Amino acid sequence: MVGMGRTGSIRRETEETRVRVRVDLDGSGVADVETGLPFFDHLLEQLAVHGGLDLEVRAEGDLEVDDHHLVEDVGICLGRALDEALGDRRGIRRMAWSAVPMDGSLVLCALDLSGRAYFRVSGFRPSRPGIGEPPLSLENVPHFWRSLCEHSGTTMHVEFRAWDNDHHAVEAMFKAVARALREAVEVVGESVPSTKGRLRRG
């Protein structure tokens, strides 16, 4: 599925999880995802489809304890895979934003593939602990994005402007990030879009 363009492939194994992630930034929105958390799978599929990237995720973890370790490690691996796929980030648009409605929910996302890690979310107010069976703990959703940002060198701000129900709001969040990411990774030039001459972390 993942081609020969801007791709990243990461494996991570701990005593708690086994995760493999492959991403192709120049894909066509094909998702092949299995995490053991159906709603999380659905959200990652939205990220691929609306982000225009091909994504493969295989994750196993100690879900009998809870889903924290698995969700965190998928975020870590996806962040590292994105960083690998971006390379020196030469020619990318770098900064982008989007606003996505889903029925009564509205989410805004602004991001910068700056090489600097930062994540901020406002207005995140779920009314129930989790969604799905086994459930994705909604408190882990911001943690997923924070882990991704830390390991991809991304600055990301997400704002919930309206919230009608948890499913709509969280799905709109993933779609908003996907749409912004799709624009930010687009190659629009030949130089590194920074006065410093580099965007790599470190």
What tags apply to this protein structure?
4-stranded mixed beta sheet, Ribosomal Protein S5, domain 2, 10 strands, alpha+beta, single chain, 202 residues
Model description:
The structure is a single chain. The protein is an alpha+beta fold. The protein has one domain (7-184): 2-Layer Sandwich (Ribosomal Protein S5, domain 2). The chain is 32% helix and 30% strand. It contains 4 helices and 10 strands; from the N terminus they run βββαβαβββββαβα. The chain has helices at 38-51, 68-86, 140-152, 166-184, and strands spanning 7-13, 17-24, 31-34, 54-61, 95-102, 105-112, 118-122, 130-131, 136-137, 155-162. It has a 4-stranded mixed sheet, covered by helices on one side. It has a 4-stranded mixed sheet with strand order 5-6-10-7, covered by helices on one side. A hairpin with a 2-residue loop joins strand 5 and strand 6 (105-112). Helix 1 runs parallel beside helix 4 and helix 2 packs parallel to helix 3 (140-152). The longest helix has 19 residues, at 68-86. The chain is globular. The relative contact order is 0.20.
